[in-house]
Amino acid sequence: MLLSGGLDSTTVLAAAATKRRVFALSFRYGQRHAAELGCAARQATRLGAVAHETVDLGHLGRLLVGASALIEGSALAVPKLGDASDGIPPTYVPARNALFLAYALAWAEAIDAVDIWIGTNALDYSGYPDCRPEFITAFAQMAALATRRGVEGRPIAIAAPLSELRKHEIITLGHSLGVDYADTISCYDPAGTDPDVRACGACDSCRLRREGFTLAALADPTRYASSTQAKRP
């Protein structure tokens, strides 16, 4: 499964671990929120992953630095409160999930895994084209054509169990599975380094996360850079 260290992927890890022997895969791709990888490693251990690999795609950051606000060193700003715009936001990372799923597909076939789990969400997502159910369906069809297992009639499935859930429903699910959300990072522009990281409280991801805990009627364990930011509507 693809494990970023964020709220959604950690929830999927917890859900998958109740049904599968999980092999977790994370990526270092030059993201400005690379502290999430520390969370991913700890969550993989905490939730019983059989293995956890972090693939170094640092060169990808150099290729994409001018195209995404999520890449360290990008001149593009992470949108904060009041900066929202229509369409695909500057935090979109070109073809990220397509690349990540391709790596996962190769590993899955090598270990004869039956499926790949991913935490994409089509309802609360921020306009990313590679989070849509139609993308997941298309990738699964491609995977069936591109692999030995697929050609032999044993295609590797793509599981996206959070696709149609709202953020508060995801949090409620994770809470029921005992997920420690205090050790997850959702913020696009955090301050500090792992493990002492603070969420900005103002980016779109922070807003969705905070609203999710409110609607789930659960205490938000997120550590924010300031109490003022944490209380913004």
| Class per helix and strand makeup | alpha/beta
Order of helices and strands: HEHEHHEHHEHEEHH
Helix content percent band: 25-40%
Neighbour order of strands in the largest sheet: 1-2
Q: Could you describe the largest sheet, including whether it forms a barrel?
A: 2 strands, parallel
What is the CATH level 1 assignment? Answer: Alpha Beta
Radius of gyration: 17 Å
Percent of residues in beta strands: 5-15%
Low-confidence stretches: 228-233
Shape: globular
Explain briefly what this protein structure is.
By secondary structure, the chain is of the alpha/beta class. Helices cover 38% and strands 10% of the residues.
Describe this protein's structure.
The chain has 233 residues and is of the alpha/beta class. The protein has one domain (7-230): HUPs (Rossmann fold), CATH 3.40.50.620. It has nine helices and six strands; from the N terminus they run αβαβααβααβαββαα. The chain has helices at 7-17, 36-46, 58-64, 96-110, 133-146, 148-151, 167-176, 204-215, 227-230, and strands spanning 23-28, 51-56, 115-117, 157-159, 191-193, 196-198. Strands 1-2 form a two-stranded parallel ribbon. Strand 1 (23-28), helix 2 (36-46) and strand 2 (51-56) form a beta-alpha-beta unit. Helix 1 crosses helix 7 (167-176) and helix 7 packs across helix 8.
